[in-house]
Amino acid sequence: MKPIRPLLVFGTRPDAIKMIPLVFACREHPLLSPIVCASGQHREMLSGVLEHFGVQPDYNLDIMQPGQSLTDITTRVLQGMAPILEKERPDVALVHGDTSTALAAGLAAFYARCPLGHVEAGLRTGNLYSPFPEEMNRTLLGNLCSLHFAPTGRNRENLLRQNAPGEIFVTGNTAIDVLRYTVKEDHRFSQGALREIDFSRRVILLTAHRRENLGQGLPAIFAAVRRILNDCPDVEFVFPVHPNPAVARQAEAAFADTPRVHRVAPVDVFDMHNLIGRCHMVMTDSGGLQEEAPSLGRPVLVLRKETERMEAIEAGTALLAGTDEQSVYESAMRLLHDPAAYGRMAHAQNPFGDGHAAERIAGIIAQRFGEENKA
C-alpha cells in the first residue's frame, strides 16, 4: 500500500505549537508520510518555534509583510497553496484552529477537491465579531471540512448544531500534548529577564493582546492590575508584551513607573510553559493558555467578555473575569485572598484531554485514508 500523505499547514506561533505534536505523530506512524507547509503569517515568532522543536517545513510561503491586512494574508495564502496542492496531491490537508492561514489554506484545499481535516474544530463563542476574525474563520471552516477533530464533546455539539458536513471525532486538544515536550523540573529560562524574577513571591502571569481588547479593554485591565499591586504588596506580574505596537504603547503608558510589572519580550514556548508552572495564577485573553495552565495546576482568569472554551469555566479551571476594571480586580483579589477558592481551581480536572490527541488524529487519518488507498 502506498504511503498516506497528509499536508499539514500552519502559519502562526500558536498554530505551530499545537500542530507540532501532530507532525511528530504523523512522522512516527508507519502508514503516514506527512508534508509540512508554513505560511509565515508570523515570520519571526513562527521560525523560533520551528527551530526549538527541530521541524523544517517542506514549504514556506513566507507571506508576512509589514502592515499586512487580513485580506493580504488570505489572498497570499490562497495563491501560495494552489501550486503546492497541484504538485503534491496530498490525501488530506490538515489545518488548525481559527487563523486566516487556516481559512485560506482550507479554501485552497476545497478548490483543489482535496479532503480537508480541521484540528481543534468546533470552538464557538456565538458572536461572529468576538474574537474577530477567528470566530468567522472557524465557522466557515466547519462547512469546508470532511474531517473535524473536536477537542471536546461540547465542540462536537457545536458542529452538529451547525449541521457541519463530514465526520466528527472527539480527540482532546493537541495543546496538552505539547507539555510532554516542554515542561521540565530543571528548566532554565532562555530569556535572562525571567531568570531575575523571584518566584518565591506570588507572581501572576499576564498576557493581553486580542484585537477586541485594544480599545477600552486593555486600559481597564491595566488599571485593575495597578489596583491589585497597590493592595497586595507581595504580588508581582510578569507580562510578555505582544509585538503589536498598539499593545506595546499601552503597556508602556500603564506600567512605565511600575517595577513590580516585569514587562518582558515575547516568550518562547519552552519558557512559557515552565513560566506558567512557576507562577501563582494566569490572567489572559489568550485561548491556548486556558487549555495549558490547568494541566499545570494554575487557575486562569479569562480577560474576555466571552470564551469559546466554556468547558474550562464549567470544569472550574478558569473564570470569565471580563474586561471591566472592577470585575477583573475582584476576580483576582478573590483568588489571592481565598485559599479555598484558589485550591478548587488549581485542582480541578483539565477538560481538554490527556495529552494523546495527536496520536488519535494520526490513527484516524491512517485508518480512513488507508482504506481508500487499498481500494
UniProtKB/TrEMBL annotation:
Residues 25-365 form the UDP-N-acetylglucosamine 2-epimerase domain. Keywords: Isomerase. Gene3D superfamilies: Glycogen Phosphorylase B. NCBIfam families: wecB. SUPFAM superfamilies: UDP-Glycosyltransferase/glycogen phosphorylase (SSF53756). The lineage of its organism: Bacteria, Bacillati, Bacillota, Clostridia, Eubacteriales. This is UDP-N-acetylglucosamine 2-epimerase (non-hydrolyzing). Belongs to the UDP-N-acetylglucosamine 2-epimerase family. InterPro entries: UDP_GlcNAc_Epimerase_2_dom, WecB-like. Pfam families: Epimerase_2 (PF02350). Its EC number is 5.1.3.14. It comes from the Bacteria. One of its GO terms (molecular function) is UDP-N-acetylglucosamine 2-epimerase activity.
